[in-house]
Design brief:
Blueprint (H helix, E strand, L loop, with lengths): L1 E7 L6 E5 L3 E5 L6 E2 L10 E6 L2 E6 L5 E3 L2 E3 L2 E4 L4 E4 L2 E8 L10 H11 L4 H15 L5
Parallel strand pairs: 3-4
Antiparallel strand pairs: 1-2, 1-11, 3-5, 5-6, 6-9, 7-8, 7-10, 10-11
Length: about 140
């Protein structure tokens, strides 16, 4: 789990965000966990992962970022209260605890196990599957 405070030019107060992923992407793309709205930011500009000494921040495609005021091209380890700056966005690491993070999931195995061991929920699973299929057909924007 990582807790962030995010400050942008668009907002008067910080936004608090807690994420439980072991790998977190920051960027302008819709697949990024934290969106940076600046036009100069690639879809996945920054990758954050666990390391024994803190979180490893990596600029993808040599994307530069600032950590505690120092310009970084490549990667750097961050700790609690460190300040990550990406264009006009300031991100402060408030808590880092990977004991509470989600590891990789075997969704297919979990689905099969649930489907076979809880037959009373078959109607619900079928309804959810239909909703998911229909939601894939809808485009937004």
């Amino acid at each position: 789990m990582i807790k962030f405070e995010i400050y942008t030019d668009d907002s008067d107060s910080p936004q608090s965000v807690t994420l439980f992923f072991r790998t977190i992407f920051l960027g302008s793309g819709k697949s990024s966990h934290i969106k940076i709205t600046d036009q100069n930011v690639p879809p996945q500009a920054i990758k954050i992962t666990n390391s024994p000494k803190g979180v490893l921040i990596e600029g993808t495609q040599n994307f530069p970022f600032k950590l505690n005021g120092k310009k970084i091209i490549g990667s750097k380890v961050a700790r609690i209260n460190d300040r990550l700056i990406i264009e006009n966005t300031l991100i402060i690491f408030k808590e880092i605890n990977y004991d509470n993070s989600h590891g990789p999931l075997n969704l297919e195995g979990l689905y099969d196990d649930f489907h076979h061991n809880y037959e009373e929920y078959e109607n619900i699973l079928t309804a959810i599957e239909k909703e998911l299929i229909l939601s894939d057909d809808v485009s937004i924007g």
